Amino acid sequence: MKKAMVLGASGGMGQAIVRELVNKEIEVVAFARNEAKLQTIFGHDDRVILCPGDAQNKYELQKELHDIDVIFHALNVPYSQWEQKLEKIMTNVVELAEEQNIKLAIVDNIYAYGEGNGKKISEDYPKQPHTKKGKIRLRLEEIVKNSDVSALFAHFPDFYGPGAENSMLHYFFASVRQDKTAIFIGNQKVKREYIYTPDGAKAIITLAQHPDAYGQHWNIPATDVISGKEIIELVRESERFTKKVFTVKKELISFLGLFYKDMKEVVEMLYLTEDPVVLSGEKYEKHIGTLPRTPYREGIKQTLSYYKGE
C-alpha cells in the first residue's frame, strides 16, 4: 500500500487511521465534510492531502481517488441521519472502488451482532440485529457483498481516544476537562469494552496490508472489559478529579429524546450498556498477529491530554 484515502478523517477513528498511515510513510488523502475541521487537525502536515467533500456526492468523493490503493471507510453521520444517508454513501464508495479497482477497509461496529450471549463473540456469531441501527449496518454489509469490490470489515466496540467525540465516554471526558460535575452514560457497574482509537487504527491498517484479509470480517476487541466505576477511579487518580459523577439512565435519555432527534436515537442502543457484546480477537491473533492493546490507564491519560490541548 503506497497511497490510501480515509473517509471520515475528522472523526475519532478516522483521525487515528490518518496519523498511523503517516507514521508508516504511506501517502494519505483525508476526506471529510468539514473543511475547517480538516484544516485544524491536519492542515499543518504537508504529508496529508486534504479533501473536503460530501460522500453523498459521487463527484466530490472521486476528486482525489487517483492512484489510491485502499479506501478506509471510517465515515459516519449522526444517528438521526442514518436512514437517509448511510446506504447512499456506501453505494457511492462501493461503485467507485469497483470502477477504479480500489480495495476497501471498512470500520464497522457491533450493532449487527444484536444481543450477546454472555461469551466473547467471534466472527461467525449469527447476525440477528434487533435494533433499527443494527439492521441498517447489516444492509450496508449486503451492499458490499453484492458487489465485486475487494473489501474487509473490521468490527470495533465503542471508541475512546483523541478526537473521538461521537462516543459515550466523550461526555464524561469533556466534563472532566472542564473540571465540572460529570455524567456517565449507562450502568457504572457493568463491565464492557472501549477500544483506544490508535489501537484500532493499527489493527485495521495491518489487516489492509494482508491480501488474505479481504473478503472477511474481523473482530477487533479492546484491551479488556472495564466498568464505569473503574474508569472514573482511573480518572480521579490521574487527574485529581474530585467532582461528582452522575449516572445517566435510559429514562432521562428517553425524555431528552422528546426534544433532540439524536438523543432519541441513542435509546435503542442502551442495551449495550446493560448486556454488552464483547468481541473475541482470536481470529486476528491466529492469522494476522498480536493485537495492539494499550492499557486503559495510559489510553485515558492520552485522551485527557488531548482534551486539554496538551
Protein topology:
Blueprint: E1 3-7, H1 12-23, E2 27-32, H2 35-42, E3 48-52, H3 58-62, E4 70-73, H4 82-100, E5 103-108, E6 120-121, H5 132-145, E7 151-155, E8 158-160, H6 168-177, E9 182-185, E10 191-196, H7 197-208, E11 217-219, E12 225-227, H8 228-239, E13 245-248, H9 250-256, H10 261-266, E14 278-279, H11 282-287, H12 296-307
Parallel strand pairs: 1-2, 1-4, 2-3, 4-5, 5-7, 6-14, 7-11, 8-10, 9-13
Antiparallel strand pairs: 10-12
Q: How would you classify the helix and strand content by structural class?
A: alpha/beta
Spell the H/E element sequence: EHEHEHEHEEHEEHEEHEEHEHHEHH
- State the share of residues found in helices, binned by percent: 25-40%
Alpha-carbon distance between the two ends: 32 Å
**Level-1 CATH class name of the domain at 3-163 and 195-222 and 277-293:** Alpha Beta
